[in-house]
Amino acid sequence: DWTPEHVLESLVKEVRERVGEDRVLLAVSGGVDSSTLALLLAKAQVNHLAVFVDHGLLRLGEREEVEGALKALGVNLRVVDAKEHFLKALKGVEDPEEKRRIIGREFVEVFSQVAREAGPFRFLAQGTLYPDVIESAGEQGAAKIKSHHNVGGLPEDLKFELLEPFRLLFKDEVRELALLLGLPDPIRLRHPFPGPGLAVRILGEVTEEKLDILRRADDIFISLLREWGLYSQVAQALAVLTPVRSVGVAGDERKYGYVLALRAVTTEDFMTADWARLPLDFLDEAARRITRRVPEIGRVVYDLTSKPPATIEWE
Ligand code: XMP
Q1: Could you list the residue range(s) of the whole structural domain that residue 291 is in?
Q2: Is residue 202 in some structural domain?
Q3: Nearest to 79 by CA among 113, 51, 115
Q4: Are 49 and 24 in contact (CB under 8 A)?
Q5: What is the pTM of this model?
Q6: Measured from the CB, is residue 195 less than 6 Å from ligand 1?
Q7: What CA–CA distance (Å, rounded) separates 280 from 286?
Q8: Angle CA(6)–CA(178)–CA(104) in degrees, nearest 5?
Q9: Is residue 286 situated within a structural domain?
Q10: The domain spanning residue 246 has which CATH number?
Q11: Is residue 215 classed as helix, strand or coil in its secondary structure?
Q12: Would residue 113 count as lying in a domain?
């Protein structure tokens, strides 16, 4: 019968037997699936290299948090600082799908380079879950709303056998494994975060200055949700930096600041979603804190749109 301990034991055995003395490569995004997969490889004591590409589109402190946790738990992790590379590729780009394509392409390029330098590897491990297996089986005809960025499309000269130990598991089961493997709660219980990161939360062109503003504002919002015990009651929460500047007052001067949108949703499956009824006192405090600590932001609004017709992200 099914217990997390039992599942973990059989996955460790499966990975060990399949991999043997060969080498495994994997990409770590900082999300719960890839982090747990890295921990599973470490636990199975197979020869592995986990690659974390810092594309410069991460949230405040995210890289350090993931790096610290995984290394402490025995993962052989290499962090690649590719911030400048990505920012350069995104320069002047405003279209969301174009941003996604560029980020996907650059990701493959950076990752492939590491794979070549550190290779050869026989296996590529991926944190594919059961719902992904089902979805890609039925995906052919379905119109895709957004081109979700994935590790696919590696160059011809890099050939791997896929290792997908979670292919029969659901997200909740991976979270249970993560608990057994010691993944810290902030990573284990983290909301989903898109592969293209903050690039699709800055409407229009992505610049270093805008990333810095959004990172600080997002951190205040998310930290406050945790403080109020609201973080786990919503499925996803995010801040969006709009290109709109509105007028405000600072002392006796008129000042133009960015409009920041806060969004929080409840959902079962992310296909449809409802906007979260966060307490007004909470929203009041979030707006005050953000405008006080991030002076570049002049106005804070809360998104009252469900999905459909809106999507969860703004791009
Ligand atoms: P939307 O905005 O389509 O988002 O309602 C549904 C879920 O998917 C996430 N999302 C992405 N994840 N790459 C990803 O890995 C992407 O390009 C992407 N776009 C949206 C979004 O955060 C939400 O959880």
Answers
A1: 207-302
A2: no
A3: 51
A4: yes
A5: 0.92
A6: yes
A7: 10
A8: 125
A9: yes
A10: 3.30.300.10
A11: helix
A12: yes
